[in-house]
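Hi all, posting the design record for the shared folder.

TITLE: backbone redesign
STEP: 1 of 1
STRUCTURE INPUT:
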């Protein structure tokens, strides 16, 4: 879900416990999904499903109904622009200076010509498409294994590596030097895209969560397959487009 100021504190302990257990996690056989925490994960899935039913789904419907598409797009652009410094820093520590420079110029263009990121001339006029990354990706580049599948309360589908990346991304968000609160920066970065994505993909998400026979198993498969696809595309080792990064607050995935 979205990164509320209290969410990172609430989730820090269970995430740390999961990470501490990662050394004991079995390696999946034959490309399967390692899920030694399935019992706990199913509890988290029930919590997340309940939060979606009671809060995220109705709020996103109101958000999408009240705000015109152009306004929602601008808010999402603004949020994405706030996230660019994080991507730039991670590109640097990954040793990818080309993507770091690309992201820097994209951020500069959208922050000025794009009116603080409300518009995206960097993509349309300058050919500077977004190249998002996070500390989870950095860990993957450094050779850290993905670890077991996790579903985090309020944050959704993830993995041990992704959970660690998420914590580091929140704590080290470059915007915290401006706001003096990394969680405030996280809220500003993720809330609009989360609500907009939940609204625009409502039929697909509703079908997955409320119409499938086992929504937990379907969510796990959907997340794992998309992550694998994304990481394969990013570094030829293991990467994927992760719809849950936006649907549940960017679990910064499990790269």
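Okay, here is what came back for every position:
SEQUENCE:
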């Amino acid at each position: 879900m979205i990164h509320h100021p209290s969410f990172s504190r609430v989730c820090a302990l269970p995430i740390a416990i999961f990470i501490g257990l990662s050394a004991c996690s079995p390696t999946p056989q034959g490309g399967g999904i390692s899920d030694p925490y399935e019992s706990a994960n199913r509890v988290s899935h029930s919590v997340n499903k309940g939060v979606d039913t009671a809060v995220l789904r109705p709020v996103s419907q109101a958000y999408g109904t009240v705000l015109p598409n152009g306004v929602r797009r601008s808010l999402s652009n603004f949020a994405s622009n706030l996230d660019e410094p994080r991507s730039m820093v991670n590109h640097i520590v990954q040793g990818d200076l080309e993507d770091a420079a690309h992201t820097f110029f994209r951020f500069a263009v959208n922050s000025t010509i794009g009116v603080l990121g409300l518009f995206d001339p960097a993509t349309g006029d300058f050919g500077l498409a977004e190249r998002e990354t996070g500390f989870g990706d950095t860990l993957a580049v450094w050779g850290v294994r993905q670890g077991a599948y996790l579903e985090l309360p309020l944050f959704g589908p993830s993995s041990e590596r992704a959970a660690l990346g998420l914590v580091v991304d929140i704590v080290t968000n470059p915007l915290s030097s401006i706001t003096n609160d990394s969680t405030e920066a996280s809220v500003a970065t993720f809330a609009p895209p989360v609500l907009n994505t939940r609204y625009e993909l409502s039929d697909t998400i509703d079908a997955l969560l409320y119409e499938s026979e086992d929504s937990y198993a379907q969510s796990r498969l959907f997340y794992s397959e998309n992550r694998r696809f994304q990481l394969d595309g990013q570094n030829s080792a293991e990467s994927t487009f992760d719809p849950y990064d936006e649907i549940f607050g960017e679990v910064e995935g499990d790269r």
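COMMENT: The mean pLDDT is 80.
Let me know if anyone wants the other runs.
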